[in-house]
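User: Hi! I'm a student and our assignment asks us to look at how structure tokens line up with a sequence. Could you show me two examples?

Assistant: Happy to help. In each example below, the sequence comes first and the structure tokens follow. Example one:
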Amino acid sequence: MLKAFRNEKISAAFSKYVLDNMGKFFVEAQAATMEIVAADMDYMTPLIFILSTGADPTTQLLKYAEMKGVSDTLFPISLGQGQEKKANALIKSST
């Protein structure tokens, strides 16, 4: 009924339902530091950010790489607008 009559309210209604039935952990965004994210990475597990508009973790990523002494082996690339060729070349050169 909600979707049929008030489509713009559906997202808020889903959030409220999840909050009421599962708790705020499943509704609130969880902050993550580069240390937490890096703990899940290894040479076979790349770091891929899927971002919302306005989000840009590049500065944090570059600072973390510099702190760890690996900034010379970091090649950040934003996918889209023909960047897949560059990304594929970087992946092939890393093996």
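Example two works the same way, sequence first and then tokens:
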Amino acid sequence: MIIGRRIKLITVSIIVWTYFLISSIILTPIGIVLWLLTVPMDKNLRIIHLFSCFWGAQYIWVVPFWSLKIYDRKNYDNRKHYVMVSNHQSFADIVVVYSLFKHFRWTSKAENFKLPFVGWVLSLNRSIKVYRGANDAYLKFKEQAVSALNHGNSIMVFPEGTRSRDGKLGKFKDGAFRLAHETKTDILPMVIEGTAKVVPKKGWVLTGKEKMILKVLEPVPYEDFKDLSFPETSSFIREIIEKELLQLRSVSL
């Protein structure tokens, strides 16, 4: 029985990854053409971002054993922009956040921009590069992020910096919160649950039927953290996310 289930999961995984490859080959040139046609009149790239949201969300729609429930989408006010932060469990978090169909710019390590398909989408959407290990890493990040915020774009950050190995919430880095302070921008915390089992951190074999959750929490106004230090703000937001994450897990047990 165990061997049979393993064979089934490998077969399903091959089908899903093949679909990802084929769909990316088809959608990439469409995205490039759409970008060329719309960028002269759409300086904030909202149209290409919506296309990217569709591109990401359709994987959840198409794969029959994946499901996603989004709570409190209304907490993202389309008239405002935020520093968006969330816990990070797996590669699937990307398609989950895209499924919000809200406007934002990704932040991603510079190496990811060199990847086929993923890197091309990041570039098309003018995503923000993070130069890990560089002496001026924050300054390079800030220059891009401030420009994006000043033009009315939210930015999306996974403050753990990498995917969790065991599902536990890791320590938050200060960069996103330092940016929120320096630009006096509200923080929008979000919680993702269930994606760690969808796409494992190591390996390519999927785990089968999984339910994913994205909960958009209430924005934290600048006034609520303006008197805190960068590390204190980081800990403050981490506590909010961890509390909601534990609540979601207690309900799903």
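Here is something you could point out in your write-up. Residues 2-252 form a domain with the Glycerol-3-phosphate (1)-acyltransferase fold (CATH 3.40.1130).
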